[in-house]
Amino acid sequence: MKKLCALAAVSLWLTAPVRAVESGPADILMLFDQFVSAGAAASRCASPNDYVAVRFLSNFQWVSAHARREISRRSPESSNDDVAHELALRSQSVKDETHALVKAEGCESDTVRQLVQRFAVQAEWKPDST
User: Fold this and answer.
1) Model's pTM, two decimal places?
2) Measured distance CA(73)–CA(77) in Å, rounded
3) What burial class does residue 57 get, using C-beta atoms within 10 Å of its C-beta: 0-12 exposed, 13-18 middle, 19+ buried?
4) What is the distance between the alpha carbons of residues 30 and 24, in angstroms, rounded to a whole number?
5) What is the pLDDT of residues 43-97, one digit of tens each?
């Protein structure tokens, strides 16, 4: 039951639209999570071409840098290693949840297909340079 509730919560969260980073500092962490979940779903259910993969990774690096900055802002006493560790744990948690979702629902489910579609959108996204 606990796993089913968690999968339902993840499904709702994963289908939320990508929000602009300018909406607030918490949104960059949500955007980071959305990138991780889309990448995890695409790694299991899609075969993006090199162009799409490189664009996605480039945008993910931008999001990751801003997420690190936000975590550092929230915890100024944290070292760079602490921040990197926190982001890695967050990433692994989202990947694990997404892989569990893919395993439970399959690549053809609406939720997983939306994640794979989000991957393509995030690859084409052009973040501002702030």
Assistant:
1) 0.79
2) 9
3) middle
4) 10
5) 999 999 999 999 999 999 999 999 999 999 999 999 999 999 999 999 999 999 9
Report DSSP letters for the chain, one per residue.
-HHHHHHHHHHHHHTSPPPPGGG-HHHHHHHHHHHHHHHHHHHHH----HHHHHHHHHHHHHHHHHHHHHHHHH-TTS-HHHHHHHHHHHHHHHHHHHHHHHHHH-TTSHHHHHHHHHHHHHHH------
Lookup result for tokens 């490189």 = 54
The tokens for 113 are 């297909």
